[in-house]
Write a structure and sequence with these properties.
147 residues; two-stranded antiparallel ribbon; 9 helices; 54% helix
């Protein structure tokens, strides 16, 4: 399963924000520059997590975006559901619009347990765990300058 570009960018932004000090506001432009993402697209992508209560945004001097407290408990599956709906757990592998137990495609019965296992696995990764997993290249660059 490949993640949509929207899911990838949203996930990168949330991990970036999870690695920031708790009350630090980050400009979307700075985040986009450091992640190598299109700024206007990123600005659009942070709207759903903001509406979900995961992020706080502020305009003007000292403004930007930051992760709300407690949002570290958000799972990878939560993020994918927010960005792609329930595509991960409900979409047909072959792309049929109606593929359920009653109207199953030829792969439905084999694919259904795999989708369930995948959803359970994705639900086991929190944003905090993803943020702590590995240092990204943009952070490594900052650390080199600090030394």
């Amino acid at each position: 399963m490949l993640l949509s570009r929207a899911s990838q960018y949203t996930l990168q932004a949330l991990i970036y924000l999870a690695r920031q000090p708790p009350d630090r506001m980050v400009l979307v432009k700075r985040m986009a520059d450091e992640l190598g993402l299109p700024v206007f697209y990123l600005a659009k992508l942070i709207q759903p997590p903001t509406h979900a209560g995961w992020l706080t945004t502020a305009r003007g001097r000292g403004g930007g975006v930051r992760l709300n407290r407690g949002a570290e408990a958000i799972t990878l599956l939560d993020i994918l559901h927010l960005t792609d709906g329930h595509r991960v757990t409900h979409e047909c592998l072959l792309g049929f619009k109606t593929c359920e137990d009653e109207t199953a495609c030829v792969l439905h019965r084999q694919w259904q347990p795999i989708k369930q296992e995948l959803a359970e696995g994705l639900g086991g990764y929190t944003l905090a765990a993803l943020a702590g997993a590995a240092l990204p290249p943009w952070l490594l660059g900052e650390m080199d300058h600090a030394m």
